[in-house]
Amino acid sequence: MTQARAILWAQWRTAFNFYPRGSVAWTAIIGFFWYGFWIVAAVAASRLTALPENVHLLRVALPGTLLIALLYWQVVPLLMAATGASLELRKLQAYPIPVSQLFSIEVLLRLTAGIEMVLVLSGIAIGLIVNPAIRWWAALAILVYIVFNLFLAVGLRDLLLRMMARRRFREVIIFLLVMCSALPQLLMTRSGAGRRLFAFFAGDAWQGWPWSAASNFVQQDAPAVSLAILALWTFVAACFGHWQFVRTISFDKEAAAAEGNSGAAPQGFVESFFRLPSVLLRDPLGALVEKEIRFLVRSPRFRLVFLMGFTFGLVILLPVSLGRGSWFGKDYLTGVSVYSLLLLSEACFWNSFGFDRSAAQIYFLAPVPFSRVLIGKNLSAAFFIALELTAVTLVCGLIRMPLDLRRIAEAYAVAAVITIFLLCAGNLMSVHHARGVNPGTQIRSNAAGRLQAMLVVIYPVASIPVVLAYLARHVFDTEWAFFGVLLFDAIVGIIMYRIALDSATEAADRIKEQMIANLSTSSGPIAG
Question: For the segment 437-448, what is each residue's pLDDT rounded down to a tens digit?
Answer without folding.
Answer: 776 665 554 444
